[in-house]
Amino acid sequence: MSKLVLYYDDVSPPVRSCMMLIKLLELDVEYKYVDLFKGGQLEKSFLELNPNHTVPTLVHDNLVITDSHIILTHLCEKFEKDSEDEKLWPLSYEERIRVWNMLFFEGTVLFRRDSEFLSGIVRGGFASVDLTLHERKLLEAYNMMETYLRRHKYMAGEHMTIADISIVTTLSTVNLMFPIAAGAADRWPLLNDWFGRMQALPVYHINQTGLEKLCVVIERFGKFKFPNSVTAAPEVKQQREEAASEEANTESQEKAAEK
Fold it and tell me: Where is the GST N-terminal domain (predicted)?
């Protein structure tokens, strides 16, 4: 078997979910960085590998997998230990359907709505987006997840699965703008509790690191600050300071030009 290769940029929530699972499964993976905000996904060599120019992209022997949900499923199918009682990818058909249902929810509802919001900020700045519209759509997704969690402790059942890993990376991104804790007492108590349990995972730091990087980039593009801006690691704080300095220099130059 050839070594697993993951093409990644951890600003991407789907990438972070795959990286968290890789750590949980203790897999030996070669990581190849693709800088999304510098157009690395559009380089000819990467387009030949993945014409959809997205990350994560996993190469495993003759397989090239370009969807994070399929990557999560594949890694569990191949590498999750049979001895595990509470499997991340369940054995029973009914449980798997529940997991698939929530993976599709993440991809077609939660991630799509979050992506539309962040893409708008990147393209036109924070001032250009219809915040009321995006808030309505994303808080509706919070309501959906609260309803799912009334049925069982985790998103797809009574124990954690890859559906939870997939959802938490995107949800943590939405949480930057629309804090779940603001509705913990009345609107989303179960979602807030679930989010806290996911944040307590030993591998959650993988998500946190990428989240902080994304926060820096989006705030720079949008020229604003998230209400729930994450506490940055030292290297990320430095990036923020450099970005702020760069913006200050640009503004000074513009004012000088006006004079």
Answer: 2-83
